[in-house]
Amino acid sequence: MTPVISPGLSRRIGDARAIVAFTGAGVSAESGVPTFRGTDGIWSKLKPEELASMNAFLKNPAMIWEWYAHRKKIMGGIAPNPGHYALVRMEGLAPSFAVITQNIDNLHRRAGSRTVYELHGNIERNYCMKCGTAYGDDFVVAASGVPLCPACGGLVRPDVVWFGEMLPEDEWEASVRAAEGADLFMSIGTSAVVYPAASLPLIAKRSGAYLLEINPEPTPLTAQADEFLQGASGVLLPLLAEVMEGTHRSHG
Ligand code: BV8
């Protein structure tokens, strides 16, 4: 039976100095968080732009808050899965390791990942659109209907990046630097269609990184990847962590 992790990839994982894990909704799928574009996707009914956009929010804040409240409810009952924990193990072994995530579910941090760049924000954070005051989940959940800022009466929104909005500058710059400095860049559980995040794997490859894609199905990135490991991240990432641990044990 051919090993799932080839000897060539095992060597690369063991020798990698700077590893980046670029993650999308697929990494949280095994925690029970629905993906966006899969068959069970939360966008299979409505278009992303119809929900995750400023226009949609201003047009109907109550509906958009209902959608986020629904997602917060799902995320309230989830936990990191073996894929998240495998990335924490790998971070402990690699000289340099960063997670760049498009996910807003906070699961990487809850699993214990230390260097995490959140490109599209975090659903547990909210802020007033008028005065910028930050509000936690409790405030938003307690509000009946659309949460208004007690300080200035402004509309409170989720601290996530909507379509047409810029990504947080420092998270984006740090992510580009990490991609340019990586010798192993893993694109995991993302359909690689949302930009500018989806440009990071190619920035890494152009800067000399080995581009590994992990996904149960091919994506628009697969043709440019150096290697495509077909399967679930919750199964494959623990195997990669085991290979890394084995290499570090044998190196003493
Ligand atoms: C912007 C947060 C600049 C909110 C989200 C070119 C350059 C720049 C911009 C654009 C461009 N072309 C188009 C644009 C505009 C747009 C865009 O990219 N549109 C796409 C749809 C074409 N981009 C933007 O608007 C971005 N902003 O560009 O600003 C600017 C600003 C002003 C003026 C000019 C320029 C902002 C994009 C951010 C949008 N926010 N989410 C919220 O979540 O509510 S996007 C959303 O998609 C999530 O963040 C999500 O993470 C992201 C990507 O989706 P995936 O994570 O990949 O999830 P998906 O379901 O698609 O795929 C899951 C994958 O997992 C699948 O492949 C599946 O096979 C796999 N899988 C399933 N199970 C498993 C698994 N894998 C492993 N294991 C498993 N078990």
Account of the 3D structure:
The chain has helices spanning 7-15, 26-29, 48-51, 54-59, 61-76, 82-93, 107-111, 137-142, 169-181, 200-206, 233-251; strands at residues 18-23, 96-101, 116-118, 121-128, 134-135, 156-160, 184-188, 210-215, 227-230. By secondary structure, the chain is of the alpha/beta class. It folds into 2 domains: 1-33 and 80-120 and 167-252, TPP-binding domain (Rossmann fold, 3-Layer(aba) Sandwich), CATH 3.40.50.1220; 36-77 and 124-160, 2-Layer Sandwich (SIR2/SIRT2 'Small Domain'), CATH 3.30.1600. Helix 1 packs across helix 11 (233-251) and helix 6 packs parallel to helix 11 (233-251). The longest helix has 19 residues, at 233-251. The model has no long low-confidence stretch (mean pLDDT 93). The protein binds ligand BV8.
Short description:
With 252 residues, the protein is an alpha/beta fold. The chain has helices at residues 7-15, 26-29, 48-51, 54-59, 61-76, 82-93, 107-111, 137-142, 169-181, 200-206, 233-251; strands at 18-23, 96-101, 116-118, 121-128, 134-135, 156-160, 184-188, 210-215, 227-230.
